UniProtKB/TrEMBL annotation:
Protein's name in the database: Calcineurin-like phosphoesterase superfamily domain protein
GO molecular function: hydrolase activity
Signal sequence residues: none
Sequence ranges assigned to domain Calcineurin-like phosphoesterase in this UniProt record: 44-222
The organism of origin for this protein: Thalassoglobus neptunius
Length: 246
C-alpha cells in the first residue's frame, strides 16, 4: 500500500481540551484528513495517535469512536474497514497533568465496536485488563483489514520507566518484525522524515534502513507535514490527527 496524496485541508475537526504545562487546561482541535493510496481496495482505514485529551470527561479516543459513527451515519465517510492506534491515548481526568499515564482499555473497547482494531502502546499508555478481539502488537505480526501489520510499542529510553526499552533491544525488535515482510509497520516512536521539523529517532531510522515497499505509521513527535518518504518506505505521522486512507 502506497499513499499517493494527503489533502492538507481537514474535512472535519473535533474541539477538545488537553492538559497543559503548569496544570493549565488547553483547548485544541483534532483534524481529520483524507488520504488516497494505491492497492487499498478494502474500504477506509482510520489511523490516529496521541489522542491526549478529553471531551466532557471522556477520553478523546472514546469520543472519537462516537464521532466516527456519526460521520458514517451522515455519509461523510464509508464504514471503516480497520482502525489503527499508534499510542498515547490517555490524559488526566481533571486535565491537570501534562504527560499523565493511565489505562486506555476503554478507547480500544469503543473502537472495536466500529471495525477491527490494531494498536501499539505509547509511553503513557497502560492496559489494566486483557482485551478481547483487539491486536496489541509489540514485536509481533498480525492480519488486519486484509493487510499484514507488524508493530513495536513504546519508545527508546530507560527501561525502568513505563513502556521504554534500550536502543539495542528496540532495534532488534523492529528488524525482527520486518523479516516477516509486513505491509505496514505500526510504531509509537518513529524515524525522522526528510524535513527539518519531521523529528524522530535516528536509531529507528537505522533499524528500518533495509525496508522496501513499506508504510510506517507513527506518532509521538508532531509533524506539520504528516508524510515523508525514505527510498521505497513511506512514513505517516498521525500525532494528534486522524488520517482516513481510501
Amino acid at each position: 500500500m502506497k499513499i499517493t496524496n494527503i489533502n492538507p485541508v481537514p474535512f472535519h475537526k473535533m474541539p477538545y481540551e488537553t492538559s497543559g504545562p503548569g496544570g493549565l487546561v488547553r483547548k485544541a482541535e483534532l483534524p481529520f484528513l483524507r488520504a488516497h493510496a494505491v492497492d487499498c481496495e478494502i474500504g477506509p482505514l482510520v489511523i490516529t495517535a496521541d489522542l491526549q485529551g478529553r471531551i466532557r470527561g471522556q477520553l478523546l479516543g472514546v469520543a472519537l469512536a462516537e464521532e466516527l459513527e456519526v460521520l458514517v451515519e451522515l455519509g461523510e465517510i464509508d464504514p471503516p474497514a480497520g482502525i489503527a492506534l499508534a499510542g498515547d491515548l490517555y490524559d488526566h481526568p481533571e486535565l491537570q497533568k501534562l504527560g499523565a499515564s493511565g489505562d486506555v482499555a476503554e478507547v480500544y473497547e469503543a473502537m472495536k465496536r466500529i471495525a477491527p482494531v490494531v494498536g501499539v502502546l505509547g509511553n503513557h499508555d497502560q492496559l489494566d485488563q486483557v482485551l478481547n478481539d483487539v491486536s496489541i502488537l509489540d514485536g509481533d505480526v498480525t492480519g488486519w483489514a486484509d493487510l499484514k501489520v507488524a508493530g513495536v510499542g513504546g519508545i527508546i529510553g530507560n527501561p525502568s520507566r513505563l513502556n521504554r526499552r534500550r536502543e539495542e533491544e528496540f532495534q532488534v525488535m523492529v528488524r525482527r518484525a520486518l523479516t516477516q515482510r509486513p505491509d505496514l509497520l505500526l510504531l509509537h516512536q518513529g524515524p525522522p522524515g526528510n524535513d527539518c521539523d519531521q523529528r524522530g529517532s535516528l536509531e529507528i531510522l537505522e533499524a528500518i534502513s533495509s525496508s522496501r515497499d513499506l508504510l510506517i505509521v507513527c506518532g509521538h513527535c508532531h509533524w506539520n507535514d504528516p508524510l515523508s518518504e525514505n527510498g521505497r518506505t513511506q512514513i505517516l505521522n498521525v500525532d494528534a490527527r486522524v488520517v482516513i486512507i481510501n
